[in-house]
Amino acid sequence: MPVPAPVDTRTLLALAAARSGSHEDTARFVAAFESDVTRFITFLHPDTDSVEDLVQETMLRALVALKRFEGRSSARTWLLSIARRTVVDSVRRAAARPRTTDGEDWEREAEQRQTSEAPGLDEGIALRSLLGTLADERRYAFVATQLWGMSYEHCASLSGCAVGTVRSRVSRARADLAKMLRAAERA
Asked: Chain-centre distance of CA 10, in angstroms?
């Protein structure tokens, strides 16, 4: 008989909010996950102007669905899947809309919208491009543990593999990224 995985405290917060529906429990649930959702959406969605809106939309969708949350997965996994669908829906909506501008020089206006104080914008774009070249298993392990802050144990349980395998994948992903960065610097 399989041993049930231990329930983390944030999943318990979600279950409490789902059962009670109280404003206090719901506020604790939102506060516990808001930074995770923000980091995840920031990684997935290149338009930094809309991240806050997407976080709010994600949390709203989660609150509407919270009564149906049964704790079969961790609340974090459940919430990040809602966030992923929210970003996908946003990208689809944006792709369906025509892009217009009132200005004559749209390229200059786009450049002016980008803040010069945004540290690492170029590095972030380069990292996203390099991550796309990694093997799927290495990319997932690296992104989940290094960018989303997921524990190696949790990543291993979601991946259905041993913790050592996740550690190995992350290590190899780091080595691959470092090798690609060195090659790019030489070019």
From this structure: 17
pTM of this structure: 0.52
Owner of token pair 């949390």: 59
- Please state the separation of Cα 101 from the chain's center in Å: 30
What domains appear along the chain, each with residue ranges and CATH number?
1-98 (1.10.1740.10), 121-187 (1.10.10.10)
Instruction: Tell me phi and psi for residue 123, to 5 degrees.
Output: -65, -35
CB 7 within 8 A of CB 64: no
Cβ 137 vs Cβ 169: under 8 Å: yes
Any alpha helices (H) in the chain, and if so which ranges?
9-20, 23-44, 51-65, 75-96, 106-113, 121-131, 136-142, 152-159, 163-186
Average pLDDT, integer, range 17-26: 84
Q: How far is the C-alpha of 24 from the C-alpha of 15, rounded, in Å? A: 13
